[in-house]
Write a structure and sequence with these properties.
Helix content is 48%, strand content 14%. By secondary structure, the chain is an alpha/beta fold. Strands 3-2-1-4-5-6-7 form a seven-stranded parallel β-sheet, sandwiched between helices. α1 crosses α8, α4 runs parallel beside α5 and α6 packs across α7. It is globular and about 55 Å long. The structure holds nicotinamide-adenine-dinucleotide.
């Protein structure tokens, strides 16, 4: 018997989906049949991903907005519901990172990390989970990170690690409060070759006086599976959690890291 994942009739809202992992998740969910509303801070990239999804034959809409702000989340969710008729799947993917020591970080560095990742996850879940519970089905997936595990943090990522631990903690509480209709999980990537990582290699290269390509190669050498992850590696894990195959998984932080962390 062949088993396929069919999300036809499901309606998803993916934040920060103009590029990178979020775009990969939006395309993968659409590939399984879902309609997908695409949020991003950047209206042009949100519209581009939405166009790709429409080209696959599914309903979509680019929904610009800053998910760290309550009024923008409210408006973006209103628009997503109006475009698709409701939201059954929420993916909190929008994020930022910064390679900077704690004593060098500004208050703004701290606030931006906590607001764009932890607060945004709170705001979108608060807004969209009630209707999912009322309808009797919903799936929420929040982007964690392999660093948000005990003893896996990495230096110079203070606000980032704090924000991701907050996301994982919130995920566990939401899983209890929204059960049984709605499952809530986090997915924790390792090193995914995106614009975010490229910027980190650049900043680390600056601090260590190394070319970013050298830093990148150092990172590659520590990977158990030998290659950087791709957005679709993470998207397939998200798809699993949104599919019937993942029905009994909730409150988890599924690490999809290609084996990281590995200390030799
Ligand atoms: N790349 C990795 O190796 C890695 C590892 C672990 C976790 N993650 C997490 O995966 C998620 C996606 O990362 P990525 O590598 O694709 O990053 P990326 O920088 O390539 O893409 C992030 C997207 O989020 C959008 N965004 C940023 N702030 C926003 C805001 N306030 N409102 C709406 N959209 C906003 C950006 O415009 C961008 O399109 C993040 O939560 C990140 O922390 C990434």
């Amino acid at each position: 018997m062949t088993e396929t994942i069919d999300l036809a009739g499901r309606r998803a809202f993916v934040t920060g989906a103009g590029r990178g992992i979020g775009r990969g998740i939006a395309l993968r969910l659409a590939g399984a049949g879902a309609d997908v509303a695409v949020n991003d801070l950047d209206p042009a990239t949100a519209a581009r991903t939405a166009d790709e999804i429409k080209g696959m034959g599914h309903a979509s809409a680019g929904i610009p907005g800053d998910v760290s702000k309550a009024d923008e989340v409210q408006r973006a969710c209103d628009e997503a519901e109006a475009a698709l008729g409701g939201i059954d799947i929420l993916v909190n993917n929008a994020g930022i990172s910064l390679y900077r020591g704690i004593v060098e970080c500004t208050e703004d560095d701290w606030d931006r990390h906590l607001n764009i990742m932890a607060k945004a996850t709170f705001l979108t879940m608060r807004r969209l989970a009630p209707a999912m519970m009322e309808r009797g089905w919903g799936r929420i997936v929040n982007l964690g990170s392999y660093v948000a595990q005990m003893n896996c943090t990495t230096k110079y990522f203070g606000p980032y690690c704090a924000a991701k631990f907050a996301v994982v903690g919130l995920t566990q509480v939401a899983a209890q409060e929204f059960a049984p209709a709605v499952t809530v999980n986090a997915v924790g990537p390792g090193d995914v070759d995106t614009d975010m990582m490229a910027r980190e290699w650049e900043l680390e290269g600056g601090r260590r006086d190394l070319d970013p390509t050298v830093v990148k190669e150092e990172y590659r050498e520590r990977l158990i599976l030998g290659r950087f992850e791709r957005p679709d590696d993470i998207a397939r894990a998200v798809l699993f959690l949104c599919s019937p195959l993942g029905d009994q998984v909730t409150g988890s932080h599924l690490i999809v890291s290609g084996g990281l962390p590995y200390h030799n």
